[in-house]
């Protein structure tokens, strides 16, 4: 449909067809990028009511523009392993949308990383970052490098090579990467060192998730997990529920998962299961978080080792079965599409009351439908896990002001931000004929901020 046809007003009755057309074009132009298609579909389907009410978004081709990254960078990352062999990985950065501020989003190092994964994550990041209310655009990046089993020297040489190229495209007012799966404070440190060397400038705000020793923010490490729990607690409160006394299953045992477990426990929940890529542990007395932290954060061991120290617990091979553990609240904090229709059905039949997505897009579209059909409270990733990037933006603010806030100050701001996101989503859902539907609420609330800023800045 061209602009003139839209001007004639056909869109009001044909919004559905128009959105479908945009989606089909995305599929054609980006073949084989299934995760990207999935993320786009979820957002576009939510936007029908707001597009019907605000035709300027259609006239201004906001959808057509927003699904197209402003820039997609792909580059070679050669490095030398400990045996002296030359290895070649692929590096990516998608600079998706800068309507609200410099591109902002993490870097993922995982063998599954490809264009589709980076674009789905970058697309989600646009709306997530908008929801935080902070001045940050959407971006994402990473590499198919697998940090598992690599020595420190190999990780350093790889990240230095990665940053040698990436440094040409980023900066504190341009694009500010951070961590994601496979990228923590150590990798950020090596990348920061390389960036500083290449620029000859100490630009603290070029990366977030830095160590506290040189410009990191207190509570950044905890922020994604804590934020998810703060968000879910708001959602539960509205229905008279709470984490207190609830049984919780959390997938993963990385940064998001560990601090989601910690905050859930602070609020009085019993966390009975968590996982890694090999399988999951079930400890019916409640997981001992100190053991998980030691195994995963310091010793970099497998979660299966947990049962050696806690013989009452069980280890099960394969991680998808974790959703068969009965619970009141499930917090998927591992990776995309870890809850499919089947897993969702099992969770529902075991009486789950609420889902809070700590990972990015951990539920398939079919799984989300199952939760909605059965009245399960559902907190979608781009709202529920926005705490991480929110505290990244607070880290940028501290770096600009050359000061640092206490843990309590940052945590209080994080709680405020998560409560505000929850309220904004609830209101947007209500205004758009989908009361209580936080998927619709989050997508519309985030989209409207970006779309209005894009219109204000002209066709660029
Ligand atoms: N990777 C995280 C996310 O998915 C954090 C991004 C950041 O801090 O920039 O939101």
From TrEMBL:
InterPro entries in the record: Aminoacid_DH-like_N_sf, Glu/Leu/Phe/Val/Trp_DH, Glu/Leu/Phe/Val/Trp_DH_C, Glu/Leu/Phe/Val/Trp_DH_dimer, Glu_DH, Glu_Leu_Phe_Val_DH, NAD(P)-bd_dom_sf, NAD_bind_Glu_DH
GO biological process: glutamate biosynthetic process
Biological source species: Shouchella clausii (Alkalihalobacillus clausii)
Keyword field: NAD, Nucleotide-binding, Oxidoreductase
Keyword Nucleotide-binding tagged: yes
Assigned protein family: Belongs to the Glu/Leu/Phe/Val dehydrogenases family.
Any GO MF annotation of the entry: nucleotide binding
Residues at which substrate binds: 104, 125, 128, 179, 392
Keyword NAD (UniProt): yes
One Pfam assignment: ELFV_dehydrog_N
Gene3D superfamilies tied to this protein: Glutamate Dehydrogenase, chain A, domain 3, Leucine Dehydrogenase, chain A, domain 1, NAD(P)-binding Rossmann-like Domain
GO CC field: cytosol
Protein name per its UniProtKB record: Glutamate dehydrogenase
CDD domains hit by this protein: NAD_bind_2_Glu_DH
Residues at the catalytic site: 140
Source organism, top-level taxon: Bacteria
Residues bound to NAD(+): 224, 255
Annotated site, Important for catalysis, chain positions: 180
Residue ranges constituting the Glutamate/phenylalanine/leucine/valine/L-tryptophan dehydrogenase C-terminal domain according to the UniProt record: 217-458
Subunit structure: Homohexamer.
